[in-house]
Design brief:
The chain is mainly alpha-helical. It has two domains: 60 residues, Arc Repressor Mutant, subunit A (Orthogonal Bundle), CATH 1.10.10; 142 residues, Tetracycline Repressor, domain 2. The protein is built from nine helices and no strands. Helix 5 packs antiparallel against helix 9. The radius of gyration is 21 Å and the shape is elongated. The mean pLDDT is 86.
Amino acid sequence: MQHNKSQGVERRERERLRCKGEIIAAASKLFAQQGIEKTSMKQIADGADMSVGKLYACFRGKDEIIRELLGDSMKSLQRGGDDACRETDAPLEQIRCRLVAAVDHFKAHIDFLMIYHNESPMSCEGMIREHIDESIEIVAKLLAQAIDDGDISREDPYALAAILAGSVHELMHAFAERGGKDALDGIPAIIDRIIIKPLEMRREKDSGMEGR
């Protein structure tokens, strides 16, 4: 009897997660197409092919849907960055791999990018501030290691990480406006060329002068 009860609980949980996934997918598409403010819970329910009552059984309101959508996307972004790197890779190579993984993520989740691009930055960033700070901390640690290894010139690694994150953020917005997801492909090379390479070149120049 206990075994059957446990199976019933697991089945209901799987069903709940399936419904939540369908709701998030429908909401993401609608938010990207017409904006969060103009999207109703009824429209989300229709998009997910379920009743409004079933929708409210999974989410108490639109803010909860938005929060889960943004949080899930940022967690997926972090996992993609972690999976793209090997611990044996040099710190700068790990940063480059994370940049490519971020572009791949946003290309695969273009609806999320359009929501983030079109909505109030403060409202979206407020919901995912913890994930943004975590990303900056990861990159700052890699930059600190690159400085210790003598790969780049000595600067404040946290400031560099914030500059890099801010540059990627603005490029994502600009490229999303100009050319859609295919335009994003050039972002890692631009960041490498205007931020990482100059730090490497300056370090090489400083090392050369020290050797005289």
